[in-house]
Write a structure and sequence with these properties.
Elements (H helix, E strand, L loop, with lengths): L8 H13 L4 H16 L6 H4 L10 H6 L5
């Protein structure tokens, strides 16, 4: 898919400079940046094994733990 992206002049100059410095195409740098951004902002969800976890039977419930606490 082709997408046109317009960059501020200073950003475009930096992109050109880094693409030359690291011998990479500008398109590949932009693509990598978008992938990183999407990964960072994607909604994260717990694995199904965690969502289905019901706890340990031998471990006291939170209510039982709270009973032993006193306000300070």
């Amino acid at each position: 898919m082709d997408i046109n992206v317009y960059l501020e002049d200073c950003v475009a100059r930096q992109l050109l400079s880094y693409s030359e410095k690291f011998h990479r195409k500008r398109d590949s740098i932009v693509q990598e940046a978008i992938k990183d951004w999407l990964k960072k902002h994607s909604k994260r969800q717990w694995p199904e094994s965690i969502l289905q976890f019901e706890g340990l039977k031998e471990f006291p419930s939170i209510e039982e733990i709270r009973e032993g606490l006193t306000a300070q």
